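INTERNAL AUDIT FORM
Audit reference: QA-55
Scope: verify that the stored structure record matches its stored sequence.
Auditor: D.O.
Record contents follow.
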Amino acid sequence: MYRLNLEDTPSIERILRIYPCVGTFKHWDDSGMNTPWYYAGTFYWYNHLAVYSKDWQKTTGTRFAAEEYLGNLFPIEQAYCLGGSRYEKPGNLYLSTNYLNENQNV
């Protein structure tokens, strides 16, 4: 998560000119979260103008509020995933079987 989010900040800036948010593990499933999607681990960037032009003070008030935040402001199509399809999955992203084999050469 650190590498993908921090190693190339000029690319992050370019992405944020097109998308309102960008992060590593874009996640969606029926896990009981109060949002249609989220960036697992709260590793994300967002375009402040895009966020603050919405009802940005509205949160779920749960212990997962930071993860759920952007998913309640933007549709999943407007959320960029830095790792591409290998990090953009339903299910439990923290299981090593979901990403280690695909990631060995990264």
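Auditor finding: record pair retrieved intact. The helical segments are 2-6, 9-16, 48-52, 65-68, 100-103.
Action required: none
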